[in-house]
Amino acid sequence: MTSGEALQWVTQTLLRARIDDARMEAELLLGHVLRMSRAQLYTEPGRSLSTAETKDLRRLVRRRLSHEPTAYILGHCGFYGIEFYINHGVFIPRPETELLVEKAIELARRAYCPGKQMILADIGTGCGAIAVSLALALPQARIHATDISASALQLAERNCRRHAVDGQIELLSGNLLEPLLHPVDMIVANLPYIKNSEFEDLSPEIVDFEPTVALAGGEDGLDRIRQMLEQVPGKLNDGACLLLEIGLGQGDAVTSLIDSYFPQADIELIPDLGGIDRVVQVVPQSSVTGRQPSIHTRE
Fold first, then answer.
1. Looking at domain 3-66, does it have CATH number 3.40.50.150?
2. Quick check: 207 and 142 in contact, CB under 8 A?
3. CB neighbours (10 Å) of residue 97?
4. Where are the domains of the chain?
5. What's the whole-model pTM score?
6. In the chain, which stretches have pLDDT less than 70?
Protein backbone atom coordinates (compact mmCIF):
# COMPACT_ATOMS: atom_id res chain seq x y z
CA MET A 1 0.00 0.00 0.00
CA THR A 2 1.32 3.45 -0.92
CA SER A 3 0.96 6.55 1.21
CA GLY A 4 -1.58 7.94 -1.26
CA GLU A 5 -3.66 4.78 -1.05
CA ALA A 6 -3.34 4.73 2.73
CA LEU A 7 -4.52 8.33 3.00
CA GLN A 8 -7.57 7.53 0.92
CA TRP A 9 -8.33 4.38 2.94
CA VAL A 10 -8.08 6.13 6.32
CA THR A 11 -10.19 9.07 5.09
CA GLN A 12 -12.96 6.80 3.80
CA THR A 13 -12.88 4.68 6.95
CA LEU A 14 -13.30 7.73 9.18
CA LEU A 15 -15.99 9.17 6.92
CA ARG A 16 -18.02 5.96 7.16
CA ALA A 17 -17.76 6.25 10.93
CA ARG A 18 -19.09 9.83 10.64
CA ILE A 19 -16.00 11.32 12.26
CA ASP A 20 -15.73 15.05 11.67
CA ASP A 21 -12.79 16.44 9.70
CA ALA A 22 -12.00 12.94 8.45
CA ARG A 23 -9.44 14.07 5.87
CA MET A 24 -7.51 16.20 8.33
CA GLU A 25 -7.50 13.42 10.93
CA ALA A 26 -6.37 10.91 8.31
CA GLU A 27 -3.46 13.19 7.46
CA LEU A 28 -2.50 13.44 11.13
CA LEU A 29 -2.64 9.69 11.75
CA LEU A 30 -0.79 8.72 8.57
CA GLY A 31 1.76 11.50 8.97
CA HIS A 32 2.44 10.30 12.51
CA VAL A 33 3.04 6.70 11.40
CA LEU A 34 5.24 7.64 8.44
CA ARG A 35 6.90 10.61 10.17
CA MET A 36 5.93 12.75 7.21
CA SER A 37 4.56 16.29 7.10
CA ARG A 38 1.20 17.06 5.53
CA ALA A 39 2.97 18.48 2.50
CA GLN A 40 5.08 15.34 2.11
CA LEU A 41 1.98 13.15 2.11
CA TYR A 42 0.88 14.92 -1.06
CA THR A 43 4.26 15.36 -2.73
CA GLU A 44 5.28 11.73 -2.10
CA PRO A 45 2.06 9.73 -2.70
CA GLY A 46 4.01 6.74 -4.00
CA ARG A 47 5.89 6.12 -0.77
CA SER A 48 5.35 2.45 0.16
CA LEU A 49 4.31 1.46 3.67
CA SER A 50 6.21 -1.36 5.33
CA THR A 51 4.34 -4.20 6.99
CA ALA A 52 5.06 -2.70 10.39
CA GLU A 53 3.82 0.75 9.31
CA THR A 54 0.63 -0.72 7.88
CA LYS A 55 0.00 -2.62 11.12
CA ASP A 56 0.67 0.50 13.18
CA LEU A 57 -1.66 2.61 11.02
CA ARG A 58 -4.49 0.09 11.35
CA ARG A 59 -4.00 0.05 15.11
CA LEU A 60 -4.26 3.86 15.34
CA VAL A 61 -7.34 3.88 13.10
CA ARG A 62 -9.04 1.32 15.36
CA ARG A 63 -8.36 3.57 18.32
CA ARG A 64 -9.90 6.53 16.51
CA LEU A 65 -12.93 4.44 15.52
CA SER A 66 -13.44 3.77 19.24
CA HIS A 67 -13.80 7.59 19.54
CA GLU A 68 -10.48 8.15 21.26
CA PRO A 69 -9.43 11.71 20.37
CA THR A 70 -6.59 12.02 17.88
CA ALA A 71 -4.62 14.23 20.28
CA TYR A 72 -4.47 11.38 22.80
CA ILE A 73 -3.57 8.86 20.11
CA LEU A 74 -0.69 10.99 18.84
CA GLY A 75 0.38 12.27 22.25
CA HIS A 76 0.45 15.87 21.11
CA CYS A 77 -1.73 18.65 19.67
CA GLY A 78 -1.47 22.17 18.36
CA PHE A 79 -2.70 25.26 20.22
CA TYR A 80 -2.07 28.90 19.33
CA GLY A 81 0.36 27.74 16.65
CA ILE A 82 2.41 25.79 19.22
CA GLU A 83 2.78 22.02 19.67
CA PHE A 84 2.12 20.54 23.12
CA TYR A 85 2.52 17.12 24.66
CA ILE A 86 -0.87 15.69 25.64
CA ASN A 87 -2.02 12.66 27.60
CA HIS A 88 -5.26 11.25 28.98
CA GLY A 89 -4.81 13.03 32.30
CA VAL A 90 -5.45 16.50 30.88
CA PHE A 91 -8.11 18.35 28.93
CA ILE A 92 -7.28 18.83 25.24
CA PRO A 93 -6.79 22.56 24.50
CA ARG A 94 -9.51 23.95 22.21
CA PRO A 95 -9.22 26.60 19.47
CA GLU A 96 -11.84 28.77 21.20
CA THR A 97 -9.48 29.20 24.15
CA GLU A 98 -7.06 31.03 21.88
CA LEU A 99 -9.26 34.13 22.29
CA LEU A 100 -8.53 34.03 26.03
CA VAL A 101 -4.80 33.94 25.29
CA GLU A 102 -5.02 36.72 22.68
CA LYS A 103 -6.88 38.98 25.10
CA ALA A 104 -4.42 38.29 27.92
CA ILE A 105 -1.47 39.11 25.67
CA GLU A 106 -3.15 42.28 24.43
CA LEU A 107 -3.88 43.54 27.95
CA ALA A 108 -0.44 42.59 29.27
CA ARG A 109 1.34 44.44 26.47
CA ARG A 110 -0.84 47.48 27.01
CA ALA A 111 -0.10 47.52 30.74
CA TYR A 112 3.61 46.75 30.45
CA CYS A 113 5.94 49.21 32.15
CA PRO A 114 9.66 49.04 31.33
CA GLY A 115 11.66 47.97 34.35
CA LYS A 116 8.68 46.37 36.11
CA GLN A 117 8.03 42.66 35.73
CA MET A 118 4.41 41.75 35.17
CA ILE A 119 3.13 38.73 37.10
CA LEU A 120 0.39 36.57 35.57
CA ALA A 121 -1.35 33.46 36.90
CA ASP A 122 -2.81 30.65 34.79
CA ILE A 123 -5.33 28.81 36.95
CA GLY A 124 -6.02 25.15 36.22
CA THR A 125 -3.13 24.98 33.78
CA GLY A 126 -3.56 21.36 32.67
CA CYS A 127 -0.91 20.65 30.02
CA GLY A 128 0.33 24.22 30.38
CA ALA A 129 -0.88 25.41 26.97
CA ILE A 130 -2.09 28.81 28.18
CA ALA A 131 0.92 29.46 30.42
CA VAL A 132 3.46 28.49 27.75
CA SER A 133 1.66 30.52 25.06
CA LEU A 134 1.71 33.57 27.33
CA ALA A 135 5.35 33.06 28.25
CA LEU A 136 6.45 32.85 24.62
CA ALA A 137 4.51 36.00 23.71
CA LEU A 138 5.48 37.91 26.87
CA PRO A 139 9.15 37.14 27.56
CA GLN A 140 9.36 39.88 30.20
CA ALA A 141 6.51 38.43 32.26
CA ARG A 142 6.61 35.95 35.12
CA ILE A 143 3.86 33.33 35.14
CA HIS A 144 2.49 31.17 37.95
CA ALA A 145 0.58 28.12 36.72
CA THR A 146 -1.55 26.20 39.21
CA ASP A 147 -3.27 22.83 39.08
CA ILE A 148 -4.63 20.40 41.62
CA SER A 149 -3.44 17.41 39.57
CA ALA A 150 0.16 16.26 40.09
CA SER A 151 0.15 14.39 36.77
CA ALA A 152 -1.05 17.50 34.93
CA LEU A 153 1.77 19.53 36.46
CA GLN A 154 4.28 16.90 35.36
CA LEU A 155 3.03 17.19 31.79
CA ALA A 156 3.03 20.99 32.01
CA GLU A 157 6.65 20.82 33.13
CA ARG A 158 7.52 18.78 30.03
CA ASN A 159 5.87 21.39 27.84
CA CYS A 160 7.67 24.21 29.64
CA ARG A 161 11.00 22.51 29.01
CA ARG A 162 10.08 21.73 25.41
CA HIS A 163 9.60 25.43 24.69
CA ALA A 164 12.42 26.64 26.96
CA VAL A 165 10.17 28.69 29.26
CA ASP A 166 10.68 26.59 32.39
CA GLY A 167 12.70 29.45 33.88
CA GLN A 168 9.82 31.86 33.29
CA ILE A 169 6.92 29.70 34.53
CA GLU A 170 6.51 28.52 38.12
CA LEU A 171 4.28 25.46 38.45
CA LEU A 172 2.28 25.37 41.69
CA SER A 173 0.31 22.48 43.14
CA GLY A 174 -3.00 23.30 44.77
CA ASN A 175 -6.62 24.28 44.37
CA LEU A 176 -7.21 27.27 42.07
CA LEU A 177 -5.76 30.45 43.66
CA GLU A 178 -4.70 28.89 46.95
CA PRO A 179 -1.06 28.28 45.90
CA LEU A 180 -0.54 31.97 45.01
CA LEU A 181 1.48 33.44 47.86
CA HIS A 182 1.49 37.02 46.55
CA PRO A 183 -0.90 39.19 44.51
CA VAL A 184 -0.56 39.11 40.73
CA ASP A 185 -1.30 41.54 37.90
CA MET A 186 -3.54 39.23 35.90
CA ILE A 187 -5.41 35.99 36.47
CA VAL A 188 -6.25 33.91 33.41
CA ALA A 189 -8.51 30.89 33.81
CA ASN A 190 -10.29 28.36 31.64
CA LEU A 191 -12.13 26.42 34.32
CA PRO A 192 -14.69 23.62 33.91
CA TYR A 193 -18.03 25.13 32.91
CA ILE A 194 -20.16 22.27 31.55
CA LYS A 195 -23.50 21.84 33.34
CA ASN A 196 -24.46 18.41 34.70
CA SER A 197 -27.44 18.35 32.33
CA GLU A 198 -25.21 18.93 29.31
CA PHE A 199 -23.07 15.81 29.70
CA GLU A 200 -25.58 13.57 27.96
CA ASP A 201 -25.26 15.70 24.82
CA LEU A 202 -21.46 15.57 24.65
CA SER A 203 -19.64 13.39 22.15
CA PRO A 204 -18.09 10.05 23.18
CA GLU A 205 -14.67 11.61 22.52
CA ILE A 206 -15.29 13.95 25.43
CA VAL A 207 -17.37 11.86 27.82
CA ASP A 208 -15.41 8.61 27.50
CA PHE A 209 -11.88 9.95 27.27
CA GLU A 210 -11.35 13.43 28.70
CA PRO A 211 -11.02 13.81 32.50
CA THR A 212 -14.36 14.67 34.07
CA VAL A 213 -12.67 16.91 36.64
CA ALA A 214 -11.56 19.18 33.77
CA LEU A 215 -15.09 19.43 32.39
CA ALA A 216 -17.72 19.33 35.12
CA GLY A 217 -18.96 22.69 36.36
CA GLY A 218 -21.83 21.44 38.52
CA GLU A 219 -25.55 22.09 38.30
CA ASP A 220 -25.25 25.53 36.68
CA GLY A 221 -21.77 25.07 35.23
CA LEU A 222 -20.33 27.74 37.52
CA ASP A 223 -19.16 25.78 40.57
CA ARG A 224 -15.44 26.15 39.88
CA ILE A 225 -15.78 29.77 38.78
CA ARG A 226 -17.71 30.51 41.95
CA GLN A 227 -15.05 28.82 44.06
CA MET A 228 -12.31 30.84 42.41
CA LEU A 229 -14.14 34.13 42.87
CA GLU A 230 -14.30 33.40 46.60
CA GLN A 231 -10.51 33.17 46.61
CA VAL A 232 -9.80 36.36 44.62
CA PRO A 233 -9.59 38.87 47.53
CA GLY A 234 -5.93 39.48 48.28
CA LYS A 235 -4.74 37.76 45.12
CA LEU A 236 -4.83 40.74 42.71
CA ASN A 237 -2.76 43.92 42.72
CA ASP A 238 -4.57 47.25 42.37
CA GLY A 239 -5.71 47.74 38.80
CA ALA A 240 -5.15 44.07 37.98
CA CYS A 241 -7.67 42.07 35.99
CA LEU A 242 -9.23 38.66 35.76
CA LEU A 243 -9.92 36.88 32.45
CA LEU A 244 -12.28 33.89 32.33
CA GLU A 245 -13.43 31.67 29.50
CA ILE A 246 -17.14 30.85 29.65
CA GLY A 247 -19.52 28.53 27.86
CA LEU A 248 -22.31 29.19 25.39
CA GLY A 249 -25.10 31.28 26.91
CA GLN A 250 -23.37 31.79 30.26
CA GLY A 251 -22.63 35.50 29.87
CA ASP A 252 -25.54 36.85 31.92
CA ALA A 253 -25.18 34.25 34.67
CA VAL A 254 -21.44 34.83 35.00
CA THR A 255 -21.68 38.61 35.06
CA SER A 256 -24.42 38.38 37.70
CA LEU A 257 -22.27 36.02 39.74
CA ILE A 258 -19.22 38.27 39.50
CA ASP A 259 -21.30 41.30 40.43
CA SER A 260 -22.49 39.52 43.57
CA TYR A 261 -18.88 39.11 44.70
CA PHE A 262 -17.51 42.41 43.39
CA PRO A 263 -20.26 45.06 43.10
CA GLN A 264 -17.71 47.69 42.08
CA ALA A 265 -16.17 45.60 39.31
CA ASP A 266 -15.83 46.67 35.70
CA ILE A 267 -17.04 43.65 33.69
CA GLU A 268 -16.76 43.17 29.94
CA LEU A 269 -18.05 40.28 27.83
CA ILE A 270 -15.87 39.57 24.80
CA PRO A 271 -17.40 37.57 21.91
CA ASP A 272 -15.58 35.21 19.59
CA LEU A 273 -15.72 35.45 15.79
CA GLY A 274 -19.09 33.70 15.82
CA GLY A 275 -20.57 36.36 18.09
CA ILE A 276 -20.68 34.05 21.12
CA ASP A 277 -19.62 35.59 24.43
CA ARG A 278 -16.49 33.58 25.15
CA VAL A 279 -14.33 35.62 27.55
CA VAL A 280 -15.18 37.72 30.59
CA GLN A 281 -12.78 40.48 31.58
CA VAL A 282 -13.08 41.69 35.18
CA VAL A 283 -11.37 44.50 37.07
CA PRO A 284 -12.62 43.84 40.63
CA GLN A 285 -11.37 47.09 42.15
CA SER A 286 -12.46 49.66 39.58
CA SER A 287 -13.27 52.07 42.44
CA VAL A 288 -9.53 52.25 43.17
CA THR A 289 -8.90 53.79 39.75
CA GLY A 290 -11.83 56.17 40.00
CA ARG A 291 -13.82 54.48 37.22
CA GLN A 292 -17.51 53.77 37.52
CA PRO A 293 -18.44 50.08 37.60
CA SER A 294 -20.03 48.82 34.40
CA ILE A 295 -21.11 45.69 32.58
CA HIS A 296 -21.02 45.76 28.80
CA THR A 297 -20.61 43.55 25.77
CA ARG A 298 -18.14 44.35 23.02
CA GLU A 299 -19.81 44.40 19.63
1. no
2. no
3. 20
4. 3-66, 78-297
5. 0.91
6. 285-299
